[in-house]
Amino acid sequence: MMKFKTVLTAFALASCLGVAMPASAQEKPASLGLGIFTFTSGPAAAYGMPGKNAADLMIDQINAAGGIGGVKITPTYVDEAQGAQGVITEYRRLAAEPTNQVMLAALSSANCLALAPIAEQLQVPTVGWNCDTHQLLQDGKNKYVFRPNGNTVPEFVAYAVYLLAKKPDVKTVAIINPDYAFGHDAAKIFKAALHALKPDIQVVAELFPKLGSPNYQTEISRLTSARPDVVFSNLWGADLENFVRQAQPRGLFTSSQVILALGETVLQRVPLPEGVIVGVLGDGWWMSPDAEANPETKKFAEAYKARFGEYPVFPSIKMANAILYVKAAYESAMKKNGGKWPSRTELADAMKGSAVTTLTGKMHTRPDGDGIVDQIVGVTVKSPKQSFPVIGDMVRYNGDVLMPKEGQDPIAWISTLKPEFAASLPKPGSYK
């Protein structure tokens, strides 16, 4: 008993000090602690809670089947609404506990950027289950931080390609995005892609309301006055719901082609008209052809609906796929070392260059820790199967095609794209 306590103390001390633990395999723990960071309160909970719900469901399903390598998962949830400093404190606390070998952190791009150097310091495998900002892994020096669900570059290049395929004569675009890293990154990437693929396009307005704004009347007035051909937005959560509810009565959806990059998350909650361009920032659409062909996905979607009263949205799918990614890494590491329980270092090594089958497709992780994930984009259409609009006229873009190579500057890479590039990609409606 004394020896066991000594080992635990040494582990915790090493973790707190940022000292690397031995890379050798360990005895299986009584349970696998999993730190999961998401928004469970505040406006962003409209996005974060579907992620938590999916984690609860997926973990229950895995545990019911015996866990990972015979070890059941015990999650600890951290509310990102407390701010970066609180998130950092909670991360350090969880990292100091020996059973918490891996973290799913986080939803917010800002929190991911704050946690990444700490993950490297403490040598804790950390999976950004959302974490869109392309800045996260740009220096290519990470060993313990992974982002299997893709990033802002393929996500927003995809929207530019889709828009120009649907509306090749578009001349003017306005942007309304939240005023923080995710919003500004998306605007920069979308503009760069448009200008590369159709140089004569004019951006007539760029609006960046404060995250969590309850009222968008001023911004809507500016958009309706400008009358752009296209309005692009990556507002999300309660912000997106508020914007849609306020913009629709004022005719914004009829005067302009609207692109809601995260629009799939509100299809079941607000009355979106037909023809709005929406997507899922990756391949996480539970009704995609690949998802509907997968019995496990259908099982997950129906179980989610029965438990939480609505079908999963793409943050739910991102979280579920991230947990499958962690499970696959454990299984790969144990297979490699003869069934022994892996260390944190062995687990991180198993994540590098991995290819994981998910609920909606495949996750390929490059050596730099970034994920290559296909991008699904479409438009809202009525469905005889559902009481809410679904995504129709879909296209599925190969994620690798929309990503710069490792070490390339993303914006510089986007600027090299030519109209011929877009013309070579699959067309709207081709994904059936």
- Helix tally equals 15
CATH architecture assignment of the largest domain? 3-Layer(aba) Sandwich
> What is the total tally of β strands?
15
Q: Domains counted in the coordinates: how many?
A: 2
CATH level-four homologous superfamily name of the largest domain: Response regulator
Whole-Å distance between the termini? Answer: 60 Å
Mean pLDDT score: 93
C-alpha-based Rg, rounded:
22 Å
Return the structural class.
alpha/beta
Quaternary structure state of the chains depicted: single chain
Sheet bearing the most strands, described?
7 strands, mixed
Describe it for me?
The chain folds into 2 domains: 228 residues, Response regulator (Rossmann fold, 3-Layer(aba) Sandwich), CATH 3.40.50.2300; 179 residues, Response regulator (Rossmann fold). The N terminus is likely disordered. With 432 residues, it is an alpha/beta fold. The radius of gyration is 22 Å and the shape is globular. The protein is 41% helix and 16% strand. It contains 15 helices and 15 strands. α2 packs across α11, α3 runs parallel beside α4 and α5 crosses α6.
